[in-house]
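Supplementary Methods, section 5.1.

A reviewer requested that the exact input to the structure prediction be made available. We therefore reproduce it here, unchanged from the version used in the analyses.
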Amino acid sequence: MTGFRDMSLSVFLRPARFFVVVFLFCSFAARVVLSAGEASLDSLVSVARENNYEIIAARERWNAARAKAAQERVWDNPRLILEYWSIPEGGLDFGAAPEKMYGISQMIPFPGKLRIKGRAAGSQAEAMKWEYRYIELKVTAGLKTAYAMYYYLHKSIETYRQSAEIMNSFSAVAQSRYIAGQAAQGDVIRSQVEAEKMSNMVITLEQEKEAVEAELRRLTGNGSGSKPGYPAENPVRIVAMNWDKIKAAVKASPEIQKAGANEGMAMWNHKSALMEYLPDFDVSLRRKTMDGQWAGSDVMVAAAVPLWFWRQSSGVKNMAAELRAARAEKKDMELMAEAKAREYFTKADTARRLVELYESGVIPKSEQALAVAQAAFVVGRSGYLEVLDTVRAYIDAGLERHGYVADYIKNTAMLEWLTGIDFSVED
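The structure derived from this sequence is encoded token-by-token as follows.
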């Protein structure tokens, strides 16, 4: 052991040089190697808009509503009339009937009824169009929220792996110093324990990441079970947002537009209920033959008189209540949407400022502190606990920065859901 104590410092500085190489290599190699098979957020959003089943269902409901709107403007089918009178007894010989009647009958609604019903159906189709857009933004927001968690977990795994390598390198230095009588055995054991804890954290995060991958596959309609790929190094542009622009966009958001279309549908349904007080007409034209010779024509006009008016009165009251409810829901939605937009805007702007703060100050300083701690530990000027605190601070700084990026993605996604603004392309 005495021989080891007398050895030159260069003996245990070799692992230290290796430690520095590991530190520099980890941050570079993790980015290069893991960038293979990268899944950008924009590409996943494009896939989801085409393949997500909730979006497809909403799109087809809109198509169905448009088709129904065209049907509401058309008269009911006419009735063809064919009558045989005085068929001789003893059989059903229609040709022997001396008197035959041919005709057509058409039910004609009171003028304006079909136009109003068509407008109501058109408003419903308009509501379904905005519902489709709303669902599209909802799915996109859900996808971006899941991607933010996917990004955070991936970067956390990358950070813990890198930190585990750093601790393993510290362990090698501590082992060399222990052999040379420069450190206690406890430093070696503690560094090994810390490295093992970080490796176990990687396993836990990998399991959480698998659950998020399953959610990404669901949102993109990926039934094959293939992995979505690695998240981009910089998944979004982090930019300052203008509240006045967001506030104006909220008033024209798909959710508000849908509420407006529902109000319009309720208004036209109310007018349609009032029109039920007016009669419909049944018009028919008939031609008659006697013994094979034309014997004249008949024209009949019948009116469906709304004699039991309390039925129509109940319908009017029902539609009037529906109209008041639709107006109240629209107003409540406008106030709620603005309040939510303000909340998400504040959170997104806070996350943006924190990301900028960490990138410009906290992260570089934590890296600098780690490098200083490395050098001090190698030459024996600092203890293991100081090094451990520095490594933990370095880990925390990286995880917090990634967390703020994820928060920015999630809150801007919610703003996009409320406003319809795509912040990835907005200046």
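Confidence is low (pLDDT under 50) at residues 1-36. These observations are discussed further in the main text.
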